Amino acid sequence: MATNAQVSEYLTQNEERFVEELKEFLRIPTVSADPECKPHLQRGAEFVHRQLANLGCTAEIVPTAGHPIVYGEWLKSPGAPTVLVYGHYDVQPADPLDLWTTPPFEPTLRHGCLYARGATDDKGQMFTHIKSAEAWLRTIGKLPVNLKYVIEGEEEVGSRNLEDFLNARRDRLQADVAVVSDTSQYGPNQPAITYGLRGIVAVEISLTGPSKDLHSGVFGGAVANPATGIARLIASLHDDQGRVRIPGFYDDVKPLTPSERQLFSELHFDEGAFKAELGITEVAGEEGFSTLERRWARPTCEVNGLFSGYTGAGPKTIVPSKATVKITCRLVPDQNPEKLTEALHQYLKSQCPHSLKFEFTSYHGCPGFVFDPNSPYIEAAKSAIQEAWAVDQVRLIREGGSIPVVQTFKDVLGLDTLLLGWGQNTDNLHSPDEHFSVADFHRGIRASANLWQKLAEMQNQPDSSVHNIC
Ligand code: BES
Ligand code: ZN
Fold first, then answer.
1. Is 424 within 8 Å of 184 (Cβ atoms)?
2. Is 155 a pocket residue for ligand 1 (Cβ < 6 Å)?
3. Residue 399's domain spans which residues?
4. Are 233 and 308 in contact, with CB atoms under 8 Å apart?
5. Is 261 part of any domain?
6. What residues are neighbours of ligand 2 (ion), with CB under 5 Å?
7. Smallest-distance ligand from the CA of 93
8. Residue 52 sits in the same domain as residue 84
9. How far is the CA of 313 from the centre of ligand 1 (A)?
10. What is the pLDDT of residues 356-414, one digit of tens each?
């Protein structure tokens, strides 16, 4: 059944206002990693709370040891399925600021896109599920499903306080399925449902030599240089075939099945366009795997940041006192984040020259997962998206990013998650000039509005009772 005509009309009539409200949201610099932004995270939570309360949800701001979680529920469709909507109002740091065409927290419309930090990841995408509910409630007066919103402020720093919240409210949070829009489409006008994400471990290593920076002519050659030491550690992470050298790293990695390799290859990934988009001349990575396999289904180890010594203009002749590297590994299903953090720790320590002090900090970790792509929920979502995008095909893809809560939903609440990405991987998420297509924003709202109806219809169909994907 097509979208309810009144709902559809409401969405058309209110497009401009939805963009204005999103802009207001994007003006709040909710950088969860930056302690100075703490008051802004509170303001971000208040914005979401106001939005949910205006819908007529019972809504509250729940304080945590870190940034608050906003919880809202609308439960006035007894007997209908209950959907748990998850999203995050926090964003990544906006640095390097000088590479933004317009300031990251002054949302600007250019070429049909809204530019701002968080435009796609995740404020813009998450907002679609609030506006879709608004359309139903302001026109029909009720939703076809029950909704429970969990909108957190710490996703970009590993969702460290969310599990306690889910455990504490396990009964209250019971639902039939979770819906998250924090992934990407396969390409422009190629909407996709993501059935697998990689996990992650995030660590930092510091090597310290002399107690202060030293004159490199007076002391160099007689003391170990921490920058050289850290370069050696980094160089020891991969072999010449692009494989990670940490002992045990691949122990729990299942080989890709021929049918999944086939599925990936049928997506006809355009490597030329990929290289052009990224400004690279060659792709690189683990030998024996295609680019999609490397990005979606193989574990990796990446340096995210590296600093030591003098980084200002011109020369300066010192032996630095300290060098630091930030590293993340992406994990595939069955790899254990705790076990790999420890393996990384032991391996890097063993590679560190004895003359330098080795410090290791573990930040966060979560496992990777894949869902069974054959589920009635996925069928319902496909048809909701097809109508909104006016396309025949909705692709089934895996992706390489991580959303820590998805596995926690499964473990704590027994819930499967529909990952419905409205963004594009080229939206510059985590980079300067992040943006979100305004057309995709509106299509996302429409798809979400359709989805509530499709999920309700699913329950009325014989033989397709709501059941878990896995
Ligand atoms: N939205 C991303 C994850 C993502 C992006 C998945 C694109 C698939 C495609 C999410 O907000 C994110 O960036 N997560 C972090 C998690 C980490 C900090 C624990 C990530 O993947 O780096
Ligand atoms: Zn992100």
1. yes
2. yes
3. 5-197+368-467
4. no
5. no
6. 121
7. 2
8. yes
9. 34
10. 999 999 999 999 999 988 889 999 999 999 999 999 999 999 999 999 999 999 999 99
